[in-house]
Design goal:
three-stranded mixed β-sheet
Amino acid sequence: MAKLIDLSKVPVPDIIEELNFEQLYEKNKQMLIEIEPGYADALQFDSDPQAKQLQILTYREMHLIAKVNQATRANILASAFGQDLDALAANYNIERLVISPENPATNPPTPAVLESDEALKRRVQLAFDGLNTAGSVDGYIFHTLGADGRVLDADAYSPAPCEVVVVVLAHTETGLPTNDLVIKIRNHFGLTNDGTAQLPTPSKVRPQGDRVTVQSAEIINYTIDAELNIMPGPDKQVVLAAANQALAQYQLEQRKLGASITLSGIYKALHQPGVSEVTINQPAISVNIEAHQVAYCTSANIRVGA
């Protein structure tokens, strides 16, 4: 599988200019004095009408620079977001998926849950792998991610020639996809609901010779039990809340296929400002996860030591 570029490490383009009013104003002032030296005395005072006019022009110039910066970022995958990202993805014939539709019947109405910017960017990065039928690992991942918004992550591997196993992780509590989601993905690859035969209509995304199996990710359960020693002074409940929040964020970041839960990752999350020592009772060792697996925390007990 080709390694995708880490968009967070893409450097800021040179065309993006730093906004600094003082530098820009001084530059404009010197240009004006070169054209008309007689303005030099008046421009020494910010309250002078000529200085005020130059300040207004400088503000307008800075505003235009900001608009150019914004337009540039909106047309770069690494920095685009929201509707700008939607428009950029449309260039690749990709649209943002719906994880769960809106429900106007509830009170108050439940808004739709849409695919995140990060997930959409990943599919755009994989777009060129979807120009043909699946075939490659990235091709199968692209077509699986685009089959339904309920798919959180996907992977593919070949245990034998012409055999392909597609692994699906869903936007559910444990990550297990529902039966109807598995059926939809099977149909997407031209397979019957039970996956044992081909549909009468040939698949547009599965190579004719590939025998595809669609299956759920293997869920690896684990628990976290840890004790925090907190330094004298800080509010223990505030520190504990910060540790729990950081741990939840770490677990969210690792909620993908093949992402291990390491002891070092847990230590880093729990060792918040004010914590002098972290004792982890469970897990005893890192939870190593393979490409077709996902880690699921069944319980997390973080407490303050005596």
